[in-house]
Amino acid sequence: MSSKLDLLTPQNSQLIFIDQQPQMAFGVQSIDRQVLKNNVVALAKSAKAFGVPTTITTVETIGFSGHTYPELLAVFPENKLLERSSMNSWDDKNVRDALAANAAHDRKKVVVSGLWTEVCNLSFALSCLKDTDYEIYMVADASGGTSVEAHGYAMDRMVQVGVVPVTWQQVLLEWQRDWARKETYDATLTIVKEHSGAYGMGVDYAYTMVHKTLERAAHGETVGPNPAN
Hints:
Number of strands: 6
Strand order of the largest sheet: 3-2-1-4-5-6
Number of helices: 10
Radius of gyration: 20 Å
Oligomer: single chain
Mean pLDDT: 93
């Protein structure tokens, strides 16, 4: 039975951000760049909320790529950035060692967000799968390519060799899995409200209605059919 049938959990996962840097983002044409950043930060907050170990790599920061998004660094201010020169982060021993340290604790499901899909993500995924028994979960909407075609064909190529395509919200809700898990309930809904667009707005609206209802009931008011008024 394939281990890919096992759902992602906070215990079996680790996360790597590959080159989420401004110069790399400038070349992205497969997704709106502001949406891309929103999704990257949402994924980072998700990992933080669930205690999922996170590796952040950079390439040619001073040369041409620029510094990692400050919004991403704000989520993980304590994380060491793993700088390298190779387009393929798997070529760097520090990256391999960081992932291996987590995999030694049964975190062999590697969630990946990076730029660009067709270069850094693709080469990392293929090399990692060739050399290890890890599984790669490529976060398609927290990654970007230099064209819609470049991103799409790279995703297709990775899927053909066993990479699992996912989205950031899918990862978050798979980690949460059960709304009875109250220790991460509030954090999950906060991330949703901040980053999930219409879904987040709906959650915010529902929370407002519930809180208004409780407040009015506490004051002995008769609660009508529309407590938001």
